[in-house]
Design goal:
The protein is mostly helical and 418 residues long. The chain is 61% helix and 1% strand. The chain has one domain. InterPro entries: Sulf_transp_TsuA/YedE. It is found in: Cell inner membrane.
Length: 418
């Protein structure tokens, strides 16, 4: 693509210091040692201050972040490539990830118990105005902000400077969204949550068959679109062979898709709920607001969960997962010799501010982001996950016309991209 490094989103940019697409850089050993030290200190702290779940979730989060960065597994770029030039390669990796996820989630949800004997529940949320608007906003926001929720975290871990701006305003937007949420959920029309398994009478076996059929249909549609539009293929990323590829060099998207699905299922089994990201942003922002005297405990969003405002953020499982993702991405980038703070400019900072606000606010309205609503929702057999994906694609389409205003390019039929 013709973008400069300063405006490229993390899930689309080529490795900043590579000379050839097949070359690997030397591992940045001081950074690796520093990252492992920080991880060990955090692990020890969690082991002595929290229950066993939190250290386990830190490890899972670290593996999630390592996988995301290692494969440059993107949601933002996958949607953009499909909507701009009709390339569905990355979206098909999503479908593989979802197929593995529903296969693992089905028996876990049917049995109903985690590793530690507590109940498990998927993400099944209402379909209403808040979902439609929130997912649409998120779709626009992730295209302007340079990454989705998971993309923002692993971009921060990889040193993409402008993504720190996106993260900050993601947190602000999520906090404002939490404050406004009762207006969207109590005052506007919505249907009750719909589970393909429990609301339809299909059971988890029937819902699994239906889900696999839907994934196959969507994959077939993307292939039809590709045959018609003949879009450019995704360029190869630097990698190696043999066992070294586990630690260095880019993973194939299909491998990352499987690993992410397995790790999400492990998250469900460890904490009783799937992987999520943005609820922690609302918590962080609300704690800061409370420090400055705002009565956040009176917000409808915190009714029934006010205890989270009183305890340490390290008691919040989503916070621990997020920290693990950032640390895992940092280690992956250092192992590949790729960690480097990038330059920023006024245009991409402005895009990050707007994108972060839209994603944060939209995620609260839509009951989650690309991870909690799209990945976790569909894996949990929730209808709202599919609706989220459709509306985020619609937001992506609108964002294709907005990106050039901020110096962000849009893939063209003759472009090549990674």
């Amino acid at each position: 693509m013709s973008e400069t490094t300063s405006v490229q989103p993390i899930d689309e940019v080529k490795d900043p210091v590579q000379k050839k697409s097949t070359e690997l850089n030397k591992p940045q050993m001081p950074l690796i040692i520093g990252g492992l030290t920080v991880g060990a200190i955090l692990m020890i702290y969690l082991m002595f201050s929290q229950n066993i779940v939190q250290p386990l979730l830190l490890v899972i989060g670290l593996l999630l972040g390592y996988t995301l960065f290692h494969a440059r597994f993107g949601f933002t770029s996958a949607f953009r490539r499909l909507m701009s030039v009709g390339n569905g390669q990355a979206l098909r990796s999503h479908l593989l990830m979802l197929a593995v996820a529903v296969t693992l989630f089905a028996p876990i949800l049917a049995i109903g118990y985690s590793f530690f004997g507590s109940g498990v529940s998927g993400y099944v949320s209402p379909v209403g105005v808040s979902l439609l608007i929130g997912a649409f906003m998120f779709g626009i926001g992730m295209q302007l902000g340079g990454g989705c929720a998971s993309g923002t975290l692993y971009a921060v871990g990889g040193g993409r400077s402008v993504m720190f701006v996106t993260l900050l305003f993601f947190i602000i937007g999520s906090t404002v969204g939490a404050y406004h949420l009762p207006f969207w959920t109590e005052g506007l029309p919505a249907f009750e949550p719909v589970s393909l398994a429990t609301s339809t009478g299909l059971g988890y076996g029937g819902a699994w068959i239906l889900s696999i059929a839907l994934f196959g249909l969507i994959a077939w549609i993307t292939l039809v679109v590709e045959r018609k539009k003949k879009p450019p293929k995704m360029a190869p990323k630097p990698s190696t062979t043999g066992w070294k590829r586990i630690f260095r060099g880019s993973w194939p998207l299909f491998a990352a898709a499987i690993v992410l699905a397995v790790l999400n299922a492990l998250t469900l089994m460890v904490r009783g709920a799937p992987w999520g990201i943005t609820s922690a942003f609302a918590l962080w922002g609300s704690k800061v607001a409370r420090f400055f005297g705002v009565d956040v405990a009176s917000w409808g969003y915190w009714q029934g969960n006010a205890a989270a405002l009183e305890t340490s953020i390290f008691a919040d499982s989503t916070t621990v997962l997020n920290l693990g993702v950032i640390l895992g991405a940092f280690l992956a980038s250092a192992a590949g010799g790729l960690f480097k703070f990038s330059k920023i400019n006024g245009k991409n900072v402005t895009a990050s501010v707007i994108g972060g606000l839209l994603m944060g606010y939209g995620a609260r309205l839509a009951f989650g982001c690309n991870i909690g609503a799209y990945f976790g929702g569909i894996a949990s057999f929730s209808l709202h996950g599919y609706i989220w994906g459709i509306m985020a694609l619609a937001g992506t389409f609108i964002a294709l016309y907005l990106r050039p205003l901020f110096g962000l390019s849009v893939p063209k039929p003759k472009d090549s991209f990674c």
